[in-house]
Amino acid sequence: MLKLSDIKSSEEDLQDYYAQLRSQHVAPAWIGGGISLEPKSKAVPHVWHWRDLRPQAMRAAQLVGTEQAERRVLRLTNPELPGVSASNTLVANIQIVMPGEIARAHRHSALALRLIIEGTGGYTVVNGDRIPMAPGDLVLTPNWTWHDHANDTDAPMIWLDGLDTPLVRMLEAGFYEEYYKETQTVGAGADPSFVKYGDGGLRPAWEPAPAAPYSPLWHYPMSQARDTLERLAAEHPGSPFDGVILEYTNPLTGGPAMPTIACYIQRLRPGERTQAYRHVCCTNYHVIEGSGHSVVGGQRLDWEDKDVFTVPTWTFREHVNSGDRPAFLFSFTDKPVMRALDLYREETKAV
Ligand SMILES: [Fe+2]
After folding, report:
1. If 0-12 CB within 10 Å is exposed, 13-18 middle and 19+ buried, where does residue 2 land?
2. How far does residue 58's CA lie from ligand 1's centre (Å)?
């Protein structure tokens, strides 16, 4: 009969064996490190308040130039993660470009998004396309696209940077390259990717669809997202878990805007309280406008305009708009990675 084997060894024999293994850089898998039944993030729920972040961004602009800093960026660091990121796979950083400044051109394997927080009229150049930036706008700089930033206005430009740097680093897949000059030559057109692909359902038919694995649309204006959200909210209750929520899609595929990051914008009605859910992906939120709180893993995170908060993987979250105006939350997650690897799950909380 087949059965589990029962072998009693002396502690001395075991320790001697383990010492031999260690010297050969081999480890027995049956000691140390228990089995975990479900994901348990090292990251913790956390909120960074704009009232704290903005003065420090302005202070950085006094202390360091864009000659000294490749990017003048403040990294939001999760209190319990050993690295310098807001969440396990995705960073959420604050970048400031002052009037008259440029941030020089470079490209890297990690892909990036910008969600504009403050300032109107500065721009990012992505592969020669000049992309205007206004508050609430989403701007993509997909992997390995050249990008530089400039502020030709008389007010600071501040935005949220989201990148998959921790994931790329963990995969040891990162490349980086400086452009041969400080800024790219800007091509024709005021907002070329938006002119071609900003309509979503319509695209230029005289040329083939771009083959790149990311969205050919690199600018998603807040004005357009707001109009769509308002139109939907007038007729639909939306999701019980997220209110009226939209994904920023690749208009060619309907899928996520970039291979590793999915981006969303949601509108919560005044007084709305969503139901709790969790899923296998980490999420960083930015409050475009509004005030309220989210209950994340049993912890209350109060938020208001321009705050940033993070929800670790497999952690229940529910949102409450306690203000008297609609709340607009931008969020980005590593869900496309989890889906591609067939690791994605979601669960609602039993009530
Ligand atoms: Fe960059």
Report:
1. exposed
2. 20
Distance in angstroms (rounded) separating the CA atoms of residues 62 and 267: 36
Kindly give the distance from the C-alpha atom of residue 28 to the centroid of ligand 1, in angstroms, as a whole number: 42
Of all helices (H) and strands (E), which one includes residue 16? helix 11-23
Cα of 143 vs centre of ligand 1, distance in Å, is: 9
Query: Ligand 1 mean position to 192 CA, how many Å?
Result: 20
Q: Alpha helix locations (H) across 200-270?
A: 222-233
How far does the centroid of ligand 1 lie from the alpha carbon of residue 181, in Å?
A: 15
Give me ligand 1 centre to Cα 291, in Å.
31
Task: Calculate how far, in angstroms, residue 215's C-alpha sits from the geometric centre of ligand 1.
Answer: 18
Calculate how far, in angstroms, residue 107's C-alpha sits from the geometric centre of ligand 1.
6
Span from the CA of 253 to the centroid of ligand 1 (angstroms): 25
This prediction has a pTM of 0.96
d(CA 126, CA 266): 26
CA of 87 to the centre of ligand 1 (A): 19
Q: Residue-wise pLDDT tens for the chain (351 aa)? A: 999 999 999 999 999 999 999 999 999 999 887 788 999 999 999 999 999 999 999 999 999 999 999 999 999 999 999 989 999 999 999 999 999 999 999 999 999 999 999 999 899 999 999 999 999 999 999 999 999 999 999 999 999 999 999 999 999 999 999 999 999 999 999 999 999 999 999 999 999 999 999 999 999 999 999 999 999 999 999 999 999 999 999 999 999 999 999 999 999 999 999 999 999 999 999 999 999 999 999 999 999 999 999 999 999 999 999 999 999 999 999 999 999 999 999 999 987
